[in-house]
Amino acid sequence: MATSRLQMQAITKDFPGVRALDNASFEVHPGEIHALCGENGAGKSTLIKILGGVYPFGTYSGDMRINGTEQQFHAVRDAERAGIAIIHQELALIPEMTVAENIYLGREPRRFGVIDRQRLYHEAGELLSQFGLAIPLAKPVYALGIGQQQLVEIAKALGRSLQAPMEQRRSLQVPIKQRRRLQSGNALLLVLDEPTAALTESEVDILHRILARLREKGVACIYITHKLKEIFQIADRVTVLRDGKTVGTHATTSPECTEDVLISQMVGRELSTLFPERLTDKGSDEGEVALRVENLSTYPSEPPRLENISFEVRRGEILGIAGLMGAGRTELIGTIFGAYKGKWSGELFIAGTPVQIQAPSEAIQQGMALVSEDRKRYGLLMDADVVHNMTLVSLGLSEDLVSYGILNHNAASDKSAHYVDRLQIKTTSLEVPVSHLSGGNQQKVVLGKWLMTHPKVLFLDEPTRGIDVGAKAEIHALMAKLADEGVAIVFVSSELPEILGMSDRVLVLHEGKITGEFINDTLTQAEILRCAAGT
To answer: Which of 104, 301, 392, 502 has its CA 20 to 30 A from that of 486?
Structure first.
C-alpha cells in the first residue's frame, strides 16, 4: 500500500446550527489524483478549507497528517509552507490588475528592490505557453469572462507548484525551464475545487494533460467536481461525502464503481433521470411567439461581435444556445436584456410588439429575467440575507412588497418563504446571509429572485454550473415545469448533454454568428460541435 501523502481522520466541524462535517475521513497517496464528490452542502469545501488553513486548528476536531506528520495549521500561510496549493471556487484574483500581475501576485520578480515588469511579463508568458493557455497578459482580469478568469487562477496555482526551492524562489531569477528541473516537490498536494466548471472541452483537455504531468512528478491532487464523467477520465480513486460524512471510497477502475453508484451514494436515493419528460412536443410551432430578435449586431472594439442574429422563441419553448467560449452566447442574451454597454443595432419584439430596451430595468418591465453565469458577481449580494436577495428585483414591481416607499417585511418574508419551499432551498433561516449557503442553494436563491417577478421570457446563462447532480435534476425539472406553464426559456450551456436533454430547439453560435439551428429530435453532439467550430 502506498504511503499516504495526506490523512484526514475523524474531522468534525460545526457552524451555528449546522454540522458541516461529521467524523469525515479522507486519504490521498503521492502521485494520485483523488476525486472528491458530493452534493452541494455535503462538506467538500469545508474539508478543503480546513486543509488549507482557512479554518484554523482548534475550530474543528480530528487529526490531519501530511507524510505521516501531524499538522496544526493556524493560517493559510502554514498550509502553503507545508506544500499545499489550493484553487478555491471563489477566485482569488484582483480584477483591476492584469493577467500577468495576478499570476505573480505576492512573488513578483524584482531588480534592485523594484518589480521587474519586463521579466514579470516574460515569465508569465512562458508559464501560460507551457500550459497551452492563450490569454492576453496585459488585459485586466475584470475584462475576462469567468472561464478565462478560472484559467488564470489555475495558472497562478500551478505556477506556484513549479517554483524552485526557497533560495531560488526569493529572487525569481531562474528561468522557468530551469526551475522545472530544480523543483523539489514544494507542491506536495494540489487541490482544485470545481476547476472545469467554466471551461470549454478543449480547455478541460489542457487541464487534464497538465494534471497527468504533475502526477508523473509525484504531486498528489484532490479534484473536486460535479461532473461525474471527469472523475472516470482523470481520477485514480474517488471519495463520496454526504451530509458531512464519508460514504465510501472507490477505485475508479473497479467494475463496482459506476456513475449510478456514485449518484446513489451522493444523494442517498436512486436518481432515475437528470432530464424530465416534457408535456409539450419538441419543436412545436403552436405557441405564441414570446420574443423575436431580428438582425441583432453589436459594435465592440474587439471580439466577440454579434453579426445579424435573428431568432424567435415561443411561449412554452426551451431554446438552447450552444457554442464554444467566446462565441458570443453570453453577449447575445446580455444585449437583449439591456446589459450591453456598447453600440448595437437590430429589432426586438415582445409578443409581437416592437420594444426598445437600453437597460435591464426596461427588460424587467417587459417581463424578462436573466440568471447570469456569474451568480456571485451579478446575481447576489453575498453579505445580504435570503429575504433581501430574493425580493431585490421585485421591489419595484409589487405593491404588496412596497407601499409609499416603505418595505412590508412580513410580505417580503412570506413571499421569500414560498420560493424557499418551492425550490427546496436548504437554509436554517431566511435571515442567513447567502454567503453561508452552498453554491447550489445560492443558485436557487437567484432563480427564486427572478421567479418572483413572474417572467414571460427567462434567460438562463449556465444555470447548473458548479451544481451537484441532485440540484441539477431539480433545476431541470423546474425549467420543464416553467415551460409547461407557458414561460419562454432561452438558456446557454457549455454541457452538450444538457443542451440535448433540455432543449426543444438549439441555436449554435460561432464567432458571433448563427451557424446552426436545429429542432432537437435526432440532433447529435457531433452536429453541434461541427457548427460550433464553424465547419
So the answer is: 392
